[in-house]
Write a structure and sequence with these properties.
Blueprint (H helix, E strand, L loop, with lengths): L2 H4 L4 H11 L4 E4 L6 H9 L3 E4 L3 H15 L3 E5 L3 H4 L4 H7 L4 E7 L13 H7 L3 E4 L6 H15 L2 E7 H4 L27 H13 L3 E5 L1 H6 L2 H10 L3 E4 L13 E4 L6 H9 L2 E5 L18 E6 L5 E2 L2 E2 L3 E4 L2 H11 L10 H9 L16 H11 L5 E4 L5 H4 L10 E3 L9 H11 L5 E6 H6 L3 H7 L4 E7 L4 H9 L14 H7 L3 E4 L6 H11 L2 E7 L7 H6 L5
Parallel strand pairs: 1-2, 1-3, 3-4, 4-6, 5-6, 7-8, 7-10, 8-9, 10-11, 11-14, 15-16, 15-17, 17-18, 18-20, 19-20
Antiparallel strand pairs: 12-13
Length: about 550
C-alpha cells in the first residue's frame, strides 16, 4: 500500500502521485536536498528515473524525449545551484517550442537564511520559460496539473518550485486528485483555409516560374508530406526541408534536402533560381533563409496556422495562407494550374542524387581524415532502423548531409546554437525509444563539455554509440579566427584520447584510423549493443560552407 493509500502521506507523496497521474513514465533527475524525497517517491510510484550527473543534462535529455514522443518531457532538480544550471537548456527548449515540466525545489520558508536560497523565478522567466512558486499545499496538485496544461498549450517549459519544508509536511488535504491535463486539452479539428486566401495563393503560384515547396515541423505534425509532394509535382516544383524537419522528403528524387545555412551546393544553386518558396509549417527563421542569402530573388508564401511577416529581424514572408498545413496544401493543389515538368528534369534529379554537398577541395594531412569522407562512410554502413542524433558545432554541418534518413530517425535540436548537448539528447532519445539503437554524432569540444554523462549511459544500460569528429579544437571558432587573420590559440586544445576516457567509464572506446573498418565495426556493435565512443581524428583544414559563406573571401 502506498503512503497516499494509507492516509499517512507527506506532501511530497501527493506531488509524486500527481505527476504519475499526468502520465509521467520517464523523468530525468539529479537529486539534492530540495527534490530528493519527491524524486524517490516518484520512482517508487513506478516512474522510470534516469539519474544524470549534471542538471543541464536532465533538461536537455527531457527536450529530446519530448521531441521524440510528442509528449511532455519531465525533469527534476534541486533549488539554487541546481536550478541555475538550467540557464542554457531552458532557452533552447523555449526556442524549439518543446513542452517541459520541471520540478525544482525551493529554499525552506521557515529558515531565516538558507545557503542555496535564491530568487529563482527571474532566472527562469529570463529564458522565456515560466515559473510557478507553489506555497499552499492543499492547492499543489491542481497547480501542478495546471503547469502540465500550460506546457501543452503554450509548448514551452514550465518550472514549478516547491519549498523543501512544505514538501515534508504531513498531507492534510483531500485524497482525491484533479482531472489530468490530457482530459482538459480542447479536442479540435484542423483549421481549413479560407477559399479567398486559397484563390489568392493559387494566383501567386500560377504566376511563378520556379517554385520550391519547403516543409517544416508544422508539416511533419500535420502529416502533410504527401500533399506537399503532390503540390510540387503539379507546379513543376522542387522540395526542401527545414533542419528540424530534415528527412520528411528523404526518398524523393527532387528533394534538395536541408534549406538554410546547411544547404548543399546544389540546393543553393536551385534556391538561387527560384522565384517562389512555399513555406509549409515553417517558422521562417534567420538561419532557415541563410540570413537572406538562400533565395535572394524569391517571394515567400507561408502556409501556417499562425502566419507572420517579420521574424528574427527580417521580412520573412510576402504572402500568407492561414490554415492547417495538410488541408491548406490540399486546397491549394486543387486550385493551381498543372504545369509540365521542366525544372523537374532527370538531369537535375541526377545532380541532386550524385553531386557532393560541398564541392570545395582541401589538402588533408597524412593520418587525418576529411570529415566529409567520414560521414559518407558512416552513411553507407549505419543500419536504417537506428535512431540518429546530430549535435551542434562545426561538425554538425557534415552530418546534416547524410542521405536517405527519414525525419522520424534523425533528431536535430539546435535553436539556441549551444554545443555540449549531444550525449544528453541521445539519452533522451534512448529513453523514448528503449528498443532501438541510438547513434549520436558530436565533436570533441562538445562531448568534453559533459563527458561525465558517459557514466550515466553505462549505469542505465543505454544502447548508445557516440561517434566523434575530433579536430582537437572548437571547430567553428578556429575557422572564424583564421578567417579574420587572428590567432586560434585560445580555441585549440589538442586531440584528447576520447577512446581511453570512454574505457575509463567502463564502456567501449575505439580510435578509428582506417575508415575501411567502419562497416565491420558497425556490424559488431549492431550484434552486441551496449555503449561506446568512436574517436575519429579529422583534419582541421576542412572549412564548412557555413563558415565560408559567413566570411567570404577569407575562410
Amino acid at each position: 500500500m502506498s503512503a497516499v493509500q494509507s492516509g499517512k502521506a507527506h506532501v511530497y507523496d501527493i506531488l509524486a502521485e500527481t505527476f504519475r497521474r499526468e502520465g509521467v513514465d520517464v523523468c530525468f533527475a539529479l537529486l539534492g536536498d530540495a527534490n530528493m524525497n519527491f524524486a524517490t517517491r516518484l520512482a517508487g510510484e513506478g516512474c522510470r528515473m534516469v539519474y544524470v550527473r549534471h542538471e543541464h543534462c536532465a533538461v536537455a535529455a527531457a527536450m529530446a524525449f519530448a521531441r521524440k514522443t510528442g509528449d511532455i518531457g519531465v525533469a527534476t532538480v534541486t533549488c539554487g545551484p541546481g536550478l541555475t544550471q538550467l540557464m542554457t537548456a531552458l532557452p533552447a527548449a523555449v526556442r524549439s517550442r518543446l513542452p517541459l515540466v520541471i520540478f525544482a525545489g525551493e529554499a525552506p520558508l521557515k529558515s531565516g537564511w538558507y545557503n542555496q536560497g535564491i530568487d529563482q523565478a527571474p532566472f527562469v522567466k529570463a529564458t522565456g520559460a515560466d515559473y510557478h512558486s507553489l506555497h499552499l499545499p492543499v492547492r499543489m496538485p491542481t497547480a501542478i496539473r495546471d503547469a502540465f496544461l500550460q506546457a501543452r498549450r503554450e509548448r514551452r517549459p514550465v518550472v514549478v518550485g516547491v519549498p523543501l519544508d512544505l514538501q515534508e509536511l504531513a498531507w492534510t488535504g483531500a485524497q482525491d486528485f484533479p482531472a489530468p491535463s490530457q482530459t482538459l486539452v480542447p479536442q479540435l479539428s484542423p483549421i481549413p483555409p479560407h477559399p479567398e486566401d486559397v484563390a489568392r495563393a493559387a494566383r501567386l503560384v500560377d504566376q511563378s516560374r520556379k517554385i520550391v515547396v519547403m516543409a517544416g515541423l508544422g508539416a511533419v505534425e500535420a502529416g502533410a508530406a504527401a500533399v506537399c509532394r503532390a503540390l510540387a509535382r503539379n507546379c513543376d516544383g522542387l522540395l526542401a526541408e527545414t533542419l528540424p524537419a530534415r528527412g520528411i522528403f528523404h526518398d524523393d528524387p527532387f528533394n534538395l534536402g536541408v534549406a538554410g545555412g546547411f544547404s548543399s551546393d546544389v540546393a543553393f544553386d536551385c534556391f538561387g533560381e527560384a522565384d517562389l518558396v512555399i513555406a509549409v509549417g515553417c517558422s521562417l527563421t534567420f538561419h532557415n533563409a541563410a540570413g537572406g542569402k538562400l533565395w535572394p530573388a524569391a517571394k515567400v508564401l507561408q502556409i501556417d496556422v499562425d502566419p507572420i511577416t517579420i521574424n528574427q529581424g527580417r521580412v520573412a514572408a510576402d504572402a500568407h495562407l492561414r490554415g492547417d498545413a495538410r488541408l491548406a496544401v490540399e486546397a491549394l493543389t486543387v486550385q493551381v494550374a498543372k504545369k509540365a515538368p521542366v525544372w523537374r528534369s532527370e538531369d537535375l534529379a541526377h545532380r541532386i542524387r550524385t553531386e557532393p554537398a560541398d564541392r570545395m577541395e582541401f589538402d588533408i594531412e597524412p593520418g587525418l581524415h576529411d570529415p566529409r569522407e567520414v560521414v559518407a562512410r558512416l552513411d553507407e554502413a549505419i543500419p536504417r532502423n537506428w535512431q540518429l542524433v546530430n549535435s551542434s558545432g562545426h561538425c554538425s554541418y557534415f552530418f546534416a548531409q547524410m542521405r536517405g534518413w527519414s525525419q522520424s530517425q534523425f533528431l536535430t535540436i539546435r535553436e539556441f546554437g549551444a554545443i555540449g548537448n549531444g550525449t544528453s539528447f541521445a539519452m533522451g532519445v534512448a529513453a523514448a525509444k528503449p528498443d532501438e539503437t541510438v547513434v549520436v554524432f558530436d565533436g570533441d569540444g562538445s562531448l568534453l563539455m559533459h563527458i561525465q554523462e558517459l557514466e550515466t549511459i553505462k549505469r542505465h544500460g543505454l544502447n548508445i554509440l557516440i561517434i566523434v569528429l575530433n579536430d582537437g579544437a572548437y571547430g567553428s571558432e578556429i575557422h572564424k579566427l583564421r578567417a579574420e587573420g587572428l590567432s586560434d590559440e585560445g580555441a585549440v586544445f589538442g586531440r584528447t584520447d576520447l577512446a581511453a576516457i570512454a574505457r575509463g567509464f567502463g564502456i567501449g572506446g575505439e580510435t578509428i584510423t582506417d575508415l575501411s573498418q567502419i562497416p565491420e565495426m558497425i556490424a559488431k556493435f549492431q550484434a552486441t549493443g551496449g555503449a561506446a565512443v568512436w574517436d575519429i581524428p579529422i583534419s582541421d583544414r576542412v572549412v564548412s560552407p557555413v563558415i565560408r559563406r559567413a566570411h567570404p573571401g577569407k575562410a
